[in-house]
Amino acid sequence: MSFVALLRGINLGAKNKVDMKSLKVLFEEMGYENVRTYIQTGNVIFDNATYDVWQIENKLRETYGSDIPVVVRSKEELEEIQQHPIFLKEQVYVMFLAHGISDEQQALLDSLVDDEFIVRNGRNVIISLSKNYHQTKFTNAFFEKKLDMASTARNQNTVNKILMKM
Predict the structure, then answer these.
(1) Which of 16, 20, 61, 155 has its CA 20 to 30 A from that of 111?
(2) Top CATH class, 2-74
(3) Do domains 2-74 and 76-165 have the same CATH topology?
(4) Strands, E assignment, 30-142
(5) Contact (CB, 8 A) for 154 and 6
(6) Between 119 and 99, where is the model more confident?
(7) How confident is the model over 2-27, as pLDDT tens digits?
(8) Which residues pair with 56 in a beta bridge?
(9) Are 37 and 44 in contact (CB under 8 A)?
């Protein structure tokens, strides 16, 4: 089964520098198979029957010296996102949440809906923006603060390219 580990907040300026070659080797050392990376923002594609987010985050902390949140999705989960009608619009981003959301968190998101985003499967927020990502309030930081959990964002093009590599 194919998965992608989506690392949060690496290689943004001078913060959390992670070399993709060493990251690939690190995943291989943890026993993950057919490991490959896609672009510098921390997308590690691998094949395995199972995965352990705690193991990955712990190994990243040991190796790179900082806490790097990780969200993992299967190929099937990405295909579900890709098939959603809102994903076909322009200016689409996906917030991959670390955990499923509670009923209270869902109600909070429902109260904020202004036709720019929806929640999918309780673990992903798909956003179709009417303006540039950096001009909207619906950023990754917004969702992390509102939902009190780690998340990481990828644009539509990146999600599509990751799927092509899986």
Answers:
(1) 155
(2) alpha beta
(3) yes
(4) 33-38, 43-47, 70-74, 92-97, 117-120, 124-128
(5) yes
(6) 99
(7) 999 999 988 666 677 788 899 999 99
(8) none
(9) yes
